[in-house]
Amino acid sequence: MSQTSIERLREYLAQLPPQSQALLMREFERALERGQDTAVATLVLEQLRKIVRKTEAEEAAPARTDDLSRLLFQPLEPFLVEAGAPIRVGQIRRSSLHPIWQWLGRDGAPAKLNEFEATLARLPTDNAGQVEALALKLQAAASDAIAELIGPGGGDKSRALARVGAPSVIEDLYSIGAVLTVREAMVTLNEKLPRFLRAFGESQIASVTAALNIPVLQTPQMLPFALSMVIQRMTAPWQIIRLAIKIAASDDEIRVAATPYGVAVTIALHDLSCLAAILRMDIKRGRFDTVADNLKALHDGVRGLRTELDLRNDSAWGKQLTSIRADISNALQSEIDSVPGRVRRILRQRAEKDIPPGARVDSTEVEEAAALIDFVATCRNYASELAINEVTLRTFSDLQQYVERSTESLVQSLRAADHKVRAYRQQQVQAAIRFCEVLFGDDYASLMSRAAENALTGERKSSRAS
Predict the structure, then answer these.
(1) SS3 string of the chain?
(2) According to the lineage, what is the superkingdom (predicted)?
(3) What's the pTM?
């Protein structure tokens, strides 16, 4: 066949759907196996394989581009915050990465990005050293492009900045440029920091202070990022304020705020506020599996800031801490107040004539109520610091008295229950025993379970005797 005919054949085959291409390949491969039309089959297969390989390469290209993007933004990973979460100093919105990557490819450094992409495509995937060297060059090029845009000189840059993205993206652009500029110092800090900071005492404070003693990390823009790296190693993040207190050599908030490390207090308050918001959302959604951990973290954080810092009630920090306590108290109190009513709806001993045939106690509702009782019990441990002492103690005491009386009454009702409602009464007793397990422990719950079994046994014996 002439070159023109081959090109026409390739164009025709390229227009076919992928399924048709695959079917043709299988048919011509079988023809070759049978020894039929080998010349035609070989020619068509060769063209089909070229088309398929080209398609696969084109599909793989975006993945390599994604790899390049990940290499560029890898130093930012410790500071990224997901969409919707409130942001503080020392954090960057993950949603800002994509528009900034697009700006770099379009306006910032398109030639260099194309060059790096071609280089990455040629590198073997298992050569970590060369990939790392490429990443450093890529990060340096991006840092230079950002510095050129946001640096001094060049007249009005508002239009050029607007091409990067929304105001929040531009805000993150400054942070991204700063982190990429000092990426080597951040790597050094990461290597110097202890792996875990469980009890942030004097020795660990000294160790962290020494690790932070890198001039480029002591600037107002970079110190929050350095502190964020420290916080990620801490079991109790609120203890980051101890660094500020140590640097100020005082617990007075005015002296602490006057040092660059005063930003540690701002970070701690922001993180406590976010944790309080998560707690409110978990309570609203009925997710109580993490409530105990969050309550403890909030309790310890609020108590730590109140006891280790001399905060004034009318200062910005003092007002923020008061607001956090109020938010926690309101969220917990409204939920605590609802628990007795939910328990009463399940255990209320209605007259037999008011119980419809086939009535059942919803097991899901029982478990939800049991989780809420456990929630109230957990709140007791942290009530005083979170300003919910009175409502928690009153509600827990009311629950204990009501469930104890109701369980005994329901067990007694089994002895004389009509067979039409006996199943419903048994389910109420089982629910009451489940609540007793949470309120009084396994021993008391087992005692009431045996009492219920005895009540049923006695009722069956009396029925047979009659």
Answers:
(1) CCHHHHHHHHHHHHHCCHHHHHHHHHHHHHHHHHCCCHHHHHHHHHHHHHHHHHHHHHHHHHHHHHHHHHHHHHHHHHHEECCCCCCCCCCEEHHHHHHHHHHHHHHHCHHHHHHHHHHHHHCCCCCHHHHHHHHHHHHHHHHHHHHHHHCCCCCCCHHHHHCCCCHHHHHHHHHHHHHHHCHHHHHHHHHHCCCCECCCCHHHHHHHHHHCCCHHHCCCCCHHHHHHHHHCCECCHHHHHHHHHHHHCCCEHHHHHCCHHHHHHHHHHHHHHHHHHHHHHHHHCCCCCCHHHHHHHHHHHHHHHHHHCECCCCCHHHHHHHHHHHHHHHHHHHHHHHHHHHHHHHHCCCCHHHCCCCCCCCHHHHHHHHHHHHHHHHHHHHCCCCCCHHHHHHHHHHHHHHHHHHHHHHHHHHHCCCCCCHHHHHHHHHHHHHHHHHHHCHHHHHHHHHHHHHHHHHHHHHHHHC
(2) Bacteria
(3) 0.76
